[in-house]
Amino acid sequence: MNTMEESLRKFEETANRYLLELNGFELEQLRLQPSENEWSLGQMYLHLINSALYMQLRNIDNCLTQEEDSAGSLPEKTKEGQAIMERGQFPPIRIQVPPSPQYTPGQPESKEQLIEGLHTVIARMKEIMPKLEQAPVRNSMPHPRFGALNAQEWFLLIEMHYRHHLMQMDRLKQFIAGSA
Questions:
Q1: Are 152 and 4 spatial neighbours (Cβ–Cβ below 8 Å)?
Q2: Sheet strands (E) in the chain
Q3: Which CATH architecture has domain 4-21+40-65+76-91+107-179?
Q4: Domain locations in the chain?
Q5: Which residues contact residue 155 at a Cβ distance below 8 angstroms, ignoring those fewer than 6 apart?
Q6: 84-111: string of b/e by CB count within 10 Å (b at 16+)?
Q7: Which DSSP state fits 33?
Q8: Residue 146: pLDDT band with limits 50, 70, 90
Q9: Please, what is the Cα angle at 79 between 104 and 164, to 5 degrees?
Q10: Which residue, of 17, 23, 41, 121, is most buried by count of CB atoms within 10 Å of its CB?
Q11: Which residue, among 16, 15, 8, has the nearest Cα to 133 in the 3D structure?
Q12: pTM, whole model, 2 decimals?
């Protein structure tokens, strides 16, 4: 398992790659979808930003502020959750979730929205990382597929999630290039 410092460094490298990649696209290209059931590159960016800010980092905050005696009643980590934490990465497979209003991100309003969002996530990761040392390992919040994750595991998950979506970004870049 990575240390929190290593994970932050890897996360910043990946997030900076996403920022650099944005330079090569116009907003219209970021909104192109391979099909009506597949996300555009811009939607993928919003997914990464929103899941980090409103799920993963929020769950880290909850783990950090949770009373220790209230912890422990949550379910255990699932086998899938254990495997991902042990490997330090998601399996290299394409994961598709059926489109839904609560899960499918909207189209980006601007490239600036994506740039600002990524910078916000980077700043929050840097801000929260030093607090992870004090986080009781018993304090956890449930993940829909991976079960109970503590603050450190949620932090590691963010880096793994951003790295996993690089495959999707490469696929979408090829689609955009073929649409030109």
A1: yes
A2: 140-143, 147-150
A3: Up-down Bundle (1.20)
A4: 4-21+40-65+76-91+107-179
A5: 4, 7, 56, 60, 125, 128, 129, 132
A6: bbeeeebeeeeeeeeeeeeeebeebeeb
A7: -
A8: very high
A9: 40
A10: 41
A11: 8
A12: 0.92
> How far, in Å, CA of 103 to CA of 50, rounded?
10
pLDDT at 147: 94
| Predicted pLDDT of residue 73 | 52
Residue listed under structure tokens 């189209």: 107
User: What is the amino acid identity at position 48?
Assistant: L
Cβ distance 116 to 50 under 8 Å? no
Residue type for 65, please? T
The CA distance from 60 to 63, in Å, is 5
Number of other residues whose CB lies within 10 A of the CB of residue 72:
10
Structure tokens at 119: 């910078």
**CB-CB neighbours of 81 under 10 Å:** 20
In the DSSP assignment, the letter for residue 53 is: I
